[in-house]
TrEMBL record:
Record family assignment: Belongs to the short-chain dehydrogenases/reductases (SDR) family.
Superkingdom: Bacteria
Xref: PANTHER family: OXIDOREDUCTASE, SHORT-CHAIN DEHYDROGENASE/REDUCTASE FAMILY (AFU_ORTHOLOGUE AFUA_5G02870), SHORT-CHAIN DEHYDROGENASE_REDUCTASE FAMILY PROTEIN
The organism of origin for this protein: Sphingobium chlorophenolicum
Keywords: Oxidoreductase
The protein's name in its UniProt record: 3-alpha-(Or 20-beta)-hydroxysteroid dehydrogenase
EC identifiers of the protein: 1.1.1.53
Length: 244
């Protein structure tokens, strides 16, 4: 249980769902973690549970200025940044006809600019400390057309594209940048779906069940750890076979 021994990580959107599972797994594996989120109540409660290995920083990923605060607080608490997980995201089910500019802007600001600002903010620190690992969370909705998810799927395609370009740009600074593409994962993000709809989509998964947040955390630990030291620009789908 020491795969992230001595590593210092920032995980965005970590008050809930997959980000919270990642924060727990990272601490189990020996990391120090900065949990960031808009949700202060759950974020602080999780940091308290994790004790000296975690702090919570209130953070809107779409606000570039607030990233400087996150970086400063991470350096002040733990003295470095080895890992960034750009996990925070929003999801609205709307078709092209139902999507307006405000919904496009919202997905762009949180899912796209949020990951971009994060990579920009940690880059100089990682570069000065001999490298690091960035894991961006996309979605299997970004592997092909996704009906009724126009803005969301478009934003997650951008995450894939940014990750591959960043992997090329940051390789010289020993910073690896990879993507995890979750399938249908049992988190509050899916809670807005009707139970009948969830049952219907479960039947489309070869494993006939939703994924657990911990199953995404396992893939993120691999990409964040030195076990993946020769892996950059890669994509791991964790989806019970849905993208096969
Ligand atoms: P979740 O439980 O809703 O967690 C997302 C977290 O991000 C929430 O705590 C949310 O806070 C926070 N957040 C939203 N906007 C933010 C912002 N501007 N700044 C900082 N934090 C913000 O969902 P999840 O399933 O764990 O999602 C994690 C990632 O996986 C997302 O990128 C999502 O798109 C991706 N994903 C999820 C699934 C799935 O089936 N669940 C599938 C594929 C990909 P609030 O609760 O306050 O909004």
């Amino acid at each position: 249980m020491n795969r992230l021994h001595n590593k210092i990580a920032i995980i965005t959107g970590a008050a809930s769902g997959q980000g919270a599972a990642e924060a727990r797994r990272f601490v189990e594996e020996g990391a120090k973690v900065v949990i960031t989120d808009l949700n202060e109540v759950d974020g602080k409660a999780l940091a308290d549970q994790l004790g000296d290995s975690a702090i919570f920083v209130s953070h809107d990923v779409s606000d570039e200025a607030s990233w400087q605060r996150v970086v400063e607080q991470c350096l002040a608490a733990f003295g470095g940044i080895d890992i960034l997980v750009n996990n925070a995201g929003i999801y609205r089910q709307k078709s092209l006809a139902e999507t307006d500019q405000a919904l496009m802007d919202l997905h762009y600001r949180v899912n796209v600019l949020g990951a971009f600002f994060g990579m920009k903010a940690v880059h100089p620190v990682m570069k000065a400390h001999d490298g690091g690992a960035i894991v961006n969370i996309s979605s299997i909705a970004a592997l092909r057309g996704s009906p009724g998810l126009f803005a969301y799927a478009g934003s997650k395609w951008m995450v894939r594209g940014m990750t591959k370009s960043a992997a090329q740009d940051l390789a010289q600074d020993k910073i690896r940048v990879n993507t995890v593409l979750p399938g249908l994962i049992d988190t509050p993000m899916l809670a807005g779906n009707a139970p009948e709809y969830l049952e219907e989509i479960k039947q489309m998964v070869p494993f006939k069940r939703l994924g657990a947040p911990e199953e995404i955390a396992d893939a993120v630990v691999y990409l964040a750890s030195d076990e993946s030291r020769y892996v950059t620009g890669a994509e791991i789908t964790v989806c019970g076979g849905m993208s096969a």
